[in-house]
Amino acid sequence: MKVLRQRRALVAVLSLTAASGGLFVAGTAHAQTVTIGTFSFVGETGDYISQGEAYSYSTSDGDAILLDSGPVGPTGTSVIISVDGANGDHWSLEFDAPGRQILAPGTYTDAKGYPNNGDAPGLSLSGDGRACSDAAGSFTIINAAFGPSEGGVQSFDATFEQRCEPSDSVARGEVHISSPPATGSRPPSSATGSLSFSGDTGDYISQGESHSYDTSNGDAFDVSGMADGMVLIRVTGYYGDRWDLTFKPPDGQVLAPGTYTVARVLPLTHAGPDMAIGGNGRGCNQVTGSFTVTTVAFDSGRNVQSFDATFEQHCEGGVSAARGDVHVSKQQPVDGTARGRLVLIGASVVAGGLVLVTVVLVTVGLVLANRTPRRSSTWGGSA
């Protein structure tokens, strides 16, 4: 008979790990409490690890899950989960990507017992003094979100199936973990905005994935203008992603609504329009493509007040592209009306004890290039 055991006091520690010379080393820095997490597994009759029983853990039931995001080696290579039950039970669950890759959504077959899996996918479920001397199985990563180099696991969902060879009996389970940074760790933002882009398969910048950021979701936007007419935008994601976008008009001009064709080749000296979309350690030397400015507004000091654009970028002459749109605003609404501040000029006491205050409204000039209705963009694949 299978018995469902609820572990009321659970501590699960997740860490990113690396194997060096066959030695397993786990990082221990940046521990934080997982906001939402569940872990459960059940074994068939004859399975050595589960002893044919079922186990279930959940933060909603009062179980505590801690995440340790201090990696040793590339972030996301391995995910290690340790579970300590209140009654003294201990379970360990390890996932390891093949060949020092980063764990990504997909099914990993022919997994070998971690950490002796070599370049094969690694998997290991053990505990209560039981472990497989020779494990095999498979696992499916449903979702895996990692921060930057020190960011650790932000969310992770996976299912797994393991058998201790030579037995055919199997233990099956799943784990679901969500641990966003604490609210206080959200990056500051000097502008409101949104950025979304996606890439074709083979695109170096996007890695063929979709990315979306918005200040309403805790992502940070900064925008600035340069004397030579460029607009610079930095986006710092809630989970630590960082992207930089640069849009440059032809030499001697200022960005205005319209479409600009980019053809930057080596050497990197040319007078035409230019753009650079990069981040997370990736950038292009040679860029072809185009960007369309739908709205751009500067104040009298050439500071960007609002900017809306769509873009398509190809790296190093490649066919694959990244396409997206960006919208930022420092001042709402941007409608060309005068703005200003009240400045105290003088004050005097008049009859009846009243104070007469003299003020002047000093207006702040605003250069508005154009304002067009915002449109949603639908991007298709490139040829």
In short:
The protein has no helices and 28 strands.
What tags apply to this protein structure?
52% strand; 2 domains; 383 residues; disordered C terminus; elongated; seven-stranded antiparallel sheet; 28 strands; disordered N terminus; mainly beta
Describe this structure in words.
It is a single chain. Helices cover 0% and strands 52% of the residues. A hairpin with a 4-residue loop joins strand 23 and strand 24. It folds into two domains: 177 residues, no CATH class; 149 residues. By secondary structure, it is mainly beta. It contains no helices and 28 strands. The N and C termini lie far apart (58 Å). The N terminus and C terminus are likely disordered. The strands form five sheets. Strands 1-7-6-15-14-13-11-12-10-9-2-8-5 form a 13-stranded mixed β-sheet, with no helix packed on it. Strands 16, 17, 21, 23, 24, 25 and 28 form a seven-stranded antiparallel β-sheet that branches.
